[in-house]
Amino acid sequence: MKYAIVIEPTRTGYSAYVPDLPGCVAAAGSYETAEKLIHEAVVFHLEALREDGGPIPEPRTSVGSVEVSLPQ
To answer: pTM to 2 decimals?
Structure first.
């Protein structure tokens, strides 16, 4: 499964979350560490859901970008 992640800069580093897995978050001082930690958090989150007998949410969020230019 491939889940979309969001990694955002904060005042002290980076925070990360997974839109399709509420509560699945990570924070770190560097982008690379936040990316590594959110990967580990996803695995942990899905394993916990499975152990509790809960459903595993299907990845639904898609990621894209929009290019804009503003008149000057």
So the answer is: 0.89
